[in-house]
Specification:
Number of strands: 10
Strand order of the largest sheet: 1-10-7-4-2-3
Largest sheet: 6 strands, parallel
Strand content: 5-15%
Number of helices: 24
Low-confidence stretches: none
Length: about 450
């Protein structure tokens, strides 16, 4: 716990890098401007968000039945559903499928759930070649850089930095324009896809009534990769299932608007299983991943987080994310959604520091398309951390000492050197921050000043 918190504090020093701050604010402000332009198409945005909220609540309430129904329908369509308890389970299932079909090259699309199970590092250890199919992730992979944003993995890089990465890996000329870089990456991806016999994707939604898997994208890489591969493997969280296809008429436009400001994404597709006319994919598998999501669902209030449609809107408006960036969190899920999910899914003790990565401004709750009260849930996590005593022991001891002092006027009027000595035990530059001056007591207490002033 202490190590991750220390790494978080160290990585957060990037806040003082003005160039990084300018890039982050420029990129996220583009999202906000596009969202502002796009939402005028809604006559009553709050009503539509309420409809989405009702749908997601209904899905969570009937989750067990919906998952069973999805498995039944998808199996009837010719696909296969397998269940994974955790990330290791999911990796083992994927590896078994690849070995059974003797596949040595795999294409993957952009999906945070694939990062959650750490599939890239796993396949590399198994000497299986992995092809990134999106422009930004392909660029990042050249230097093994982790994604920075849930929708725009290379958000922190300027065009010059992207150009430098591609130059180092492929000798692409350094004065390439963004269009030239995109065309170059697309060419490399298209050439690589010819070798891939399997494709790994996430899923935006799972349709319980029809047994379908919904994908939404702007580059067309999912359609391209899945139709080129013999085997399509989908990894989806258990909370991705929704009751009916009709729900997409509300959820897909809201997802597109809050993700990129579009009325609808460029490509929206539904796969109901493997192709039945001899084309690809010849086999399709859906791995339903738990990975401690049931632990999050066990919390009566925070379980609302499972309604998240992963649009990234809360990340775009978060003042903490805009300053510290995506790598500082040390998790695959960043921003407000990560601050709620990670401590409850993978341990309060290990991820309690994420509860402090919030200014409680409430903007994330305001923008959320499915009305998740994110700031309230982070505060609820703080309450849980305090009651279960898994937070900073020094900080807790300091507050206890302050309460002890405040209960007695005599103790509050203790000599200045004693109060300073007690404060230094708990607050110093290491705990309070290297760039902030630790607080100090006034030379005289209020009661001493009052007596002298009115004598």
């Amino acid at each position: 716990m202490a190590t991750m918190k220390k790494e978080f504090n160290k990585a957060s020093e990037i806040t003082f890098d003005e160039e990084h701050w300018q890039k982050m604010n420029y990129s996220t402000s583009c999202y906000e401007r596009n969202f502002a332009k796009g939402k005028v198409n809604y006559r009553n945005m709050e009503l539509e968000k309420q409809r989405a909220y009702n749908m997601s609540n209904k899905a969570l309430f009937n989750l067990e039945k919906l998952l069973v129904d999805f498995e039944t329908r998808f199996s009837e369509n010719g696909g296969k559903v397998v269940w994974a308890r955790d990330a290791a389970d999911a990796r083992a299932l994927i590896f078994d499928l690849l070995m059974r079909e003797k596949i040595g090259t795999v294409a993957r699309t952009h999906s945070t759930i694939l990062d959650e199970i750490d599939i890239n590092a796993f396949l590399e250890k198994k000497n299986i070649k992995l092809i990134e199919t999106t422009v930004d992730r392909f660029t990042l992979k050249t230097n093994n850089i982790k994604a920075y944003h849930p929708l725009s993995p290379a958000l922190q890089l300027s065009k010059e930095e992207c150009n430098a990465l591609l130059n180092g890996a492929f000798k692409l000329k350094l004065d390439s324009t963004p269009k030239q870089m995109v065309n170059f990456v697309r060419y490399k991806v298209n050439e690589s896809l010819k070798q891939a016999d399997a494709c790994l994707t996430g899923a935006n939604f799972l349709l319980s009534d029809e047994g379908g898997v919904v994908f939404t994208e702007n580059e067309g890489n999912i359609l391209k990769a899945t139709t080129a591969a013999k085997i399509h493997i989908v990894v989806a969280g258990i909370a991705k299932v929704i009751p009916t296809m009709d729900d997409l008429s509300v959820l897909l436009p809201l997802l597109s608007l809050h993700a990129t400001g579009q009325s609808m994404a460029a490509f929206n597709s539904i796969s109901f299983g493997p192709a039945k006319d001899g084309r690809n994919p010849q086999q399709m598998f859906v791995i339903l991943l738990n990975n401690d999501r049931s632990e999050l669902l066990s919390h009566e209030r925070q379980r609302k987080m499972m309604s998240c449609i992963h649009c990234g809107a809360c990340v775009n408006v978060c003042p903490v994310y805009k300053n510290i960036g995506g790598h500082a969190y040390g998790t695959d899920y960043v921003g407000p959604m990560g601050s709620v999910m990670m401590p409850l899914m993978h341990g309060l003790k290990e991820y309690e520091y994420l509860a402090s990565a919030c200014s409680a401004c409430g903007r994330c709750s305001e923008v959320c398309p499915v009305k998740i009260p994110l700031d309230d849930l982070i505060i609820e996590n703080r309450h849980l951390i305090a009651t279960e005593r898994v937070g900073d022991a020094k900080l807790e001891a300091m507050f206890k000492l302050m309460i002890w002092h405040c209960k007695s006027r005599k103790k509050m009027d203790a000599p200045l050197f004693i109060k300073r000595m007690e404060l230094k035990r708990f607050i110093n530059r290491q705990t309070f921050g290297e760039r902030r001056e630790p607080p100090d007591f006034a030379p005289k207490s209020f009661s001493q000043w009052w007596k002298e002033s009115n004598s």
